[in-house]
Specification:
This is Nitroreductase family protein. This protein is of the alpha+beta class. The protein has a domain at 86-201 and 416-425: putative nitroreductase (tm1586), domain 2 (NADH Oxidase), CATH 3.40.109.30. It contains 15 helices and ten strands. The radius of gyration is 21 Å and the shape is globular. The two termini are 25 Å apart.
């Protein structure tokens, strides 16, 4: 769900690329050889990838390695978003019945794309289980983010029922807060119904790229929350002063997380280095999800695998120079009871609805939870609280942050990330 574990482009590849000068207002990293910027396209065609990497008319010189051909294959430079790991995004609409609702659920957001869920389809409904093996260790020591991610999946599951002629009745924590079964969704036959949020499930992706330097109007922010869902659960931080302060806090948290050896290791464990890794695991953080322009992405994929420390440095730099520098506003979902599992699940359901509404409105969203991850890390180790007081100063009294995200109008569309299939998550 968040942007941790970024990646660095090393120095072993020297590229000579013929490029046109960008037009005024154009992102220079998306200017290519002979056409308009690729930033408004959700994918990259084989031809445009070749053009953007200058493989068709320029020279890519590889210094110190003879692995260019292998890296083109291994990193799927010419086939982004392909293979079995991306089939769930293309097939989910065609799967009928309860399994079709599960197909919608697996496309939900989750922390580090861990997909911490299992489903059991029974005679009277669908049970959603937490998978304790799919956690991020010291990054989420109290499992708060995991339960938020399960709430996101539950919301997609419920949304997936109506178009398939099913009326869902969700029950949270049917076995109590300590049970692995986090929800039961009872199902009954009903006339098929439509929901605008269901229709954009396959377009919703975390956008870690730059956002355009224009504000999101207050009315548009209010619409993202939806009717009756603002209250004390969602706080917008849009004014320049508080927004800049939260930006500094996010950068400081990224630096602190990377300086914490265990958090850095636990974070990096979910990065998938090449296409083989991506297709085998079908989860985790991948280069396609980092919001890079076509040229940046192509070159990054051609480079040899990077180190954890270089990846940490890249994430810190992107947090400072792209994520916080271009955020139009931040949203913070809060609660008076941050340790309550029900509150965490409901926060995840709200987050998923916000992201789907943002997608429908053409607004980009990126999850940025490093501050709460540092708050929980300090609490779990008994360290002096440094991040909790700073965040509390930006929120109403008694409001505890569960998750944070930035919004804005995107420079380029986000790309899909890998997902496990219905067969892989259903038992």
């Amino acid at each position: 769900m968040r942007s941790a574990g970024g990646w660095c482009a090393g120095t072993r590849v020297a590229a000579t690329v013929v490029r046109t000068r960008p037009t005024p207002g154009e992102d220079p990293m998306t200017s290519t050889i002979d056409g308009p910027p690729e930033s408004r396209s959700p994918g990259i065609s084989r031809r445009s990838a070749l053009r953007g990497l200058a493989l068709g008319g320029a020279t890519v010189a590889v210094a110190g390695t003879g692995l260019l051909s292998y890296r083109v294959y291994d990193s799927a430079v010419l086939d982004p978003g392909g293979g079995p790991a991306h089939e769930p995004w293309r097939e989910w609409r065609d799967i009928p019945g309860p399994r079709g609702a599960v197909a919608a659920a697996v496309l939900a957001a989750s922390p580090h794309n861990t997909q911490p869920w299992d489903f059991v389809v029974t005679g009277d409904g669908i049970d959603l289980y937490a998978d304790p093996a799919r956690g991020t260790g010291s990054v989420d020591p109290f499992d708060r983010e995991r339960y938020v991610g399960l709430g996101c999946a539950l919301e997609n599951l419920v949304l997936g029922c109506g178009p398939r002629g099913l009326r869902p009745t969700p029950t949270l924590l049917p076995d109590g807060p300590g049970g692995l079964r986090v929800a039961h969704v009872g199902l009954a036959p009903a006339a098929p119904s439509t929901d605008p949020l269901h229709d954009v499930i396959d377009r919703r992706h975390t956008n870690r790229g730059p956002y355009r330097p224009v504000p999101v109007p207050p009315a548009a922010l209010a619409a993202l929350a939806g009717p009756g869902e603002t209250g004390g659960n969602l706080q917008w931080i849009a004014d320049p002063g508080p927004r800049a302060e939260l930006g500094r806090l996010l950068v400081d948290a990224a630096e602190a997380l990377c300086a914490d050896e265990q958090q850095s290791l636990d974070n990096f464990a979910w990065f998938r280095a090449g296409n083989d890794d991506e297709q085998r695991h079908r989860d985790g953080l991948v280069l396609d999800g980092q919001g890079l322009g076509p040229l940046e992405l192509g070159i990054a994929k051609l480079l040899p695998p990077y180190s954890r420390t270089a990846g940490d440095r890249f994430w810190i730099d992107r947090t400072r120079d792209v994520h916080t520098a271009t955020a139009a506003a931040y949203g913070v979902i809060t609660t008076a009871t941050p340790d309550d599992r029900r509150a965490q699940l409901e926060a995840g359901r709200l987050l998923q609805r916000i992201h789907l509404r943002a997608t429908a409105a053409g607004i980009a969203l990126q999850h940025m939870n490093q501050v709460t991850e540092r708050i929980d890390r300090e609490a779990s180790t008994g360290a002096r609280a440094t991040f909790a007081p700073r965040f509390a100063a930006l929120l109403p009294p008694g409001a505890h942050p569960l998750l944070t995200f930035r919004v804005g109008y995107p420079v380029r569309e986000a790309r899909p990330t890998p997902r496990r299939s219905v067969a892989m998550v259903t038992r």
